[in-house]
Amino acid sequence: MNYKQMLQAVDTEKVFTLLSIGYRPQGAYFVFDCLECEGKASIKIYGDSKNLFYCPTCKKGGHIVSVVMKKKGIEWDEAIEFLTTKTFADNAKKIIEELHLDYELVYHDFIKNKGISEEACKLLGIGVPKGKHMLAGCVAFTVLSESGLKVAYYGIRMKDEKAVFHKSFNPEYYLYNLNNVNNSDIVYFHTDIFECVKMIEQGKQSIFNFGLPYLSKEHLVLLDDMEKIIFKVKADLVNSMAVQLAQQHKQLYKFEH
Predict the structure, then answer these.
(1) pLDDT over 90 for what percent of the chain?
(2) Can you say whether residue 236 is alpha, beta or left, with left for phi > 0 and alpha for psi between -120 and 50 degrees?
(3) Which of 6, 117, 119, 179 is at a distance of 20 to 30 A from 106, taking alpha carbons?
(4) Residue 254: how many CB atoms within 10 A of its CB?
């Protein structure tokens, strides 16, 4: 295993938990107290730059190995041993068996205030699940693979609109509502699931990348057969996504706000 593969294999959450480093999720990053200053650093937990961090306050950055070295006061070899023996992830791959879990989903005022009807929720499998579980207090979205296989529930917590989902579900492998898309017609791409669902309700083809601030290699493969894609994403994501698409996607696409 080379160095880049090692960084990909390390479970960031396990590292921070074992080192007692507090963090909060923010998209594809964890935000944590910088070990060099009083600022807030961020470390990427998905994608090609996984487990690289940067602090905008002290302008220092690095990788998960240097975090371990600094926090534990150990040398490089010891830090590598710590990571490889205690923190390798059980990398979530594409799910091949149908999820046999059925939440009782209830229409909620939070969903109504987002402009989504009860009829759309019934059609797409959306609602606030009853009971005590990890998606309690969340809006749950039923996730189907491109072939229509039920693979997961994706949650948006109502109190702060943070994403919640099981570790077995890797959002880099899926695009929400892809199973209903006709590749020869215009497809709208979103990084906001509520906006995605509203467009579906309007009769437009719409997909969602589970809020990741980038396109994974798997996403690019899934997009490859689509003839016309319109990206409706935040302005700060346009440049990076455009570069990815220019390098790998040969079909027609444009960005709208």
Answers:
(1) 61
(2) alpha
(3) 179
(4) 9
- Host domain of residue 66: 3-86
Q: Identify the CATH number of the domain in which residue 18 sits.
A: 3.90.580.10
In the numeric block, which tokens belong to residue 163?
């994403």
Q: How many domains does the chain have?
A: 2
List strand residue ranges (DSSP E) for 72-222, in order.
105-106, 126-129, 138-144, 150-157, 163-164, 186-190, 206-208
Nearest CA among 6, 14, 42, 49 for reference residue 26: 42
Query: Measuring CA to CA, which residue among 220, 108, 212 is closest to residue 157?
Result: 108
Q: Would you say the C-alpha torsion 192, 198, 204, 207 has a positive or negative sign? A: positive
Contact (CB, 8 A) for 32 and 22: yes
The reported pTM is 0.68
Give the per-residue pLDDT at 218. 86
131-188 pLDDT, tens digit per residue, is: 999 999 999 999 999 999 999 999 999 999 989 888 778 888 999 999 999 999 999 9
Do 121 and 81 share a domain, yes or no?
no
Predicted local confidence at residue 27, as pLDDT: 78
Q: Is residue 96 part of a domain?
A: no
**Judgement on whether residues 120 and 247 belong to the same structural domain of the protein:** yes
Is residue 237, in this structure, part of any structural domain at all?
A: yes
How many angstroms separate the CA atoms of 233 and 231, rounded? 6
